[in-house]
Amino acid sequence: RGLVWKKIVNFLQPDNDLGYLEAIRIDLYSQLGKYLPGKVFAPLGKIYLARNKNISKKNLYLSVVFDAILSIAAAFSISLFLIGFFLDCNINLFNFYLIGLLAVIGGLAATHHRVIQYLIKLFLTKRKKELIDLNFDLSWINRVKIILYYAFVNFWIGFGFFYLIKSITYLSIQNLLSVIGIYILAGVLGLTAFFAPSGLGIREGVLVLFLQFYFPLNIAILISLLARVWTILGDLFLAGGFYLPNIFKKIKYR
Fold first, then answer.
1. Domain ranges, ordered by start, for the chain
2. For 92-105, how does the pLDDT look when each residue is reduced to its tens digit (9 = 90+)?
3. For this UniProt entry, which segments traverse the membrane (predicted)?
């Protein structure tokens, strides 16, 4: 995810001091904010940590807004497409895939100049911050590219979830795509639930709802809980992997 955010920053402002590893580090640190209620600490953390990377305040705010909107659009579209493999063949999948396409169109529409300007102005006004010039130049083609990048990232995270299940119980490889879609959908529904820190309860509920078609209810519940632990440990280990070397470096030079 951090690399995709770095790509957004480069599209908005090519001359910046944000390196690729630095973008990953900032993204991993800021992702820990999703475990706090309100859904604002992750983007605020990203803005704070990147404040000294020669990125204008305008482009920093814009990058975070694009990051949030386009990642959600990507997650909805790829999850709905992949869950189509879960549905019975007699169902008219055209209408189902049409919803996925509409998710992409909706995400792109939400990045229109007027919508973006309204969202950022609303945020700055509520925080009593000085309003800034919000004109930007990010082509529609580049916005579609960002959605595709996020879809790719989500696919591989879902791929890991499939093999998490495989490590504890049998699941046919034929169910690979549908299970990936289920995991992505559960994650994005949890993400968009403003009242639930890190989608707590929402994601698990969606996973159980779908997974009980593959497993007994008790196994489906166990998998959903293990997926939560897997996610938390992954976030902590990855963020810690970037943070601990800095601690050791400070100790070394004392």
1. 2-252
2. 566 667 777 777 78
3. 60-87, 93-111, 146-165, 171-194, 206-223, 229-248
